[in-house]
Amino acid sequence: MKTKLLLSAAAAALIGLTGCAGTSNQQLGTGVGAVAGGVAGNALFGGTVGTVGGAAAGALVGNEVGRRSDRR
Question: Whole-angstrom Cα distance, residue 1 to residue 23?
């Protein structure tokens, strides 16, 4: 039940982020990375600390990937 709720929230966030007009690749990468990292952190470590830590790490990685995409 908890996994289904988390995946539903992640899917809703992803859909919401892709609908934003005028966002840069860096902003989009940060948002998508945070959602994906939160899901992965919860799946690997469980609990709030795993989710928040995964979201933070995912946001950092997504931000860097988006920044590199904007430079092209």
Answer: 33
Is residue 59 a contact partner of residue 34, using CB atoms and an 8 Å limit? yes
* CA atoms of 8 and 2, how far apart (whole Å): 10
- 38-72 residue pLDDT tens: 889 888 988 888 888 999 999 999 999 888 876 66
Compute the distance between CA of residue 19 and CA of residue 32 in angstroms, rounded to an integer: 12
The encoded tokens of residue 39 equal 């899901």
**Distance separating the N- and C-terminal Cα atoms of the chain:** 42
Rounded Cα distance, 69 and 26, in Å: 7
Contact 16, 52 (CB under 8 A): no
Whether the model pTM is above 0.70: no
